[in-house]
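Collaboration report, partner site 2.

Our partner group contributed sequences for two proteins of shared interest, and the home lab folded both. The records are reproduced in the order in which they were received, starting with the first partner submission.
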Amino acid sequence: MTAGSDIPAMEGALRRQAADLGEIRRHALAVSLLSWESPAGRNFRSYLSERCLELSRTIDLLESAAADLRECGRLVRDAEMLRHQAGQ
């Protein structure tokens, strides 16, 4: 096992979390698009819209973190390869 062996698993976990939140966001958007006629319904629609924006930001951050982890994994693999070559 190498130092970078857990990185793909962590990246995958972040991507799965982003996908799960994307699904939640999709359902919330569907509900927010329903016709709400009461003041409470309009307030709820506004609340859902705000949460969907927050979910979008969180999804973007998770996807960005996953991309950063992928790059980190590449750098760790490169460093491990150089260390291995230097040890020969």
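Second partner submission, folded after the first:
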Amino acid sequence: MAAVDEARKNLQYQAYEELNGFFSNCEDHVVEIAILPPAIEPPDGFLMRDGSNVGISKKILALAFVEARQRFFEGLKFGNDQSCFNSSRVILLFDPEHITAANYRKRKLLMVWKKESGRDDERSHEFERLEKRELVFLDTILTSPLHRQSKSPTLWHHRFWLINLSLPLVHMHTDMASYSRFLKAELEAVFKAGEHHPKNYYAWQYARRLIVRAEELIQDAPEYRKVYHEVRWSWTKDMTTWCRKHPSDISGWSFLLFLLSKVDNVSERTTIIREVMCYAINFELKNESLWVFIRTALASGILQEEQHTLLDLLRRHVKAISATMTEAARSESSPVVALRWIESSGYQELESSRDELWFSSTIPELQKTSG
């Protein structure tokens, strides 16, 4: 029995050392981690590496976690910060809702940030290095094809905490082009997480909070507003493309509606919604999420005087397809159901804020049933 326990401890130690070594070697670039199926055995028995990708079995990951957890709490007890910081990476990879490990990383970063905040010079290299590596670590976990991890509320909250801490400094010490690239990289991380885990509510909620925070900072820099409008329009077009590739993702459509509410130009909003409508009509799509977006956008006030133009387009389409449908088929047709919903809701009296509130409150309910 003692021999078995000793062998298990050795295996835990080796599993942790391999995984921790992998994280240490990849601190400065994002990699992709995947769980290997039971039939695949890595050559060394621990990790299967392929360029910037690595595969690990659930068994080895669990063994590494046991060792990491032991080292983490021993590090807390004896004040070994480096051991705690390293082991917290393995802990969060296995258990993304381990709040103690996430909070420890916050305290470590906050301690460095506070040390630098009282200085008059630019951000120190130490905080900048830690911040970038933390984003790399979060990108690696949140954008990898890991079911629980990519939809972790704890990790997405941790990411926003970090961005909220560093974004004012990024805004202060970079030009608008660099600032927009920074924000676009964050949105691309959300896009990837949304692909790996459809209806990723926490990822899209992070994107909302990011946009709101970025716009708060822009208010204090009027010289950036025109450029930011162009950047925001670019994001909206990218988001439309993403949604068209994932027409059943209700969280993505919800975020697109959120972005449209931020677009100042009515003609630009109309262009996006018309594009989505034509896409749905031409391909005869029946995805409920897509048609919820269309009906909500048409019933809201964001189109202003263009509202009736697009409603007429929908009515003509419904009239054309209804001519060859039975009553039962009409009652289940997505365009017909959408038009009935709009007309029964009294669309002329709806205001944007009211409709957005309805949409945002409806989306989580749909996600609970389908996500």
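Feedback sent to the partner group on the second submission included the following. The chain has 16 helices and three strands. The beta strands are 32-35, 47-50, 53-56.
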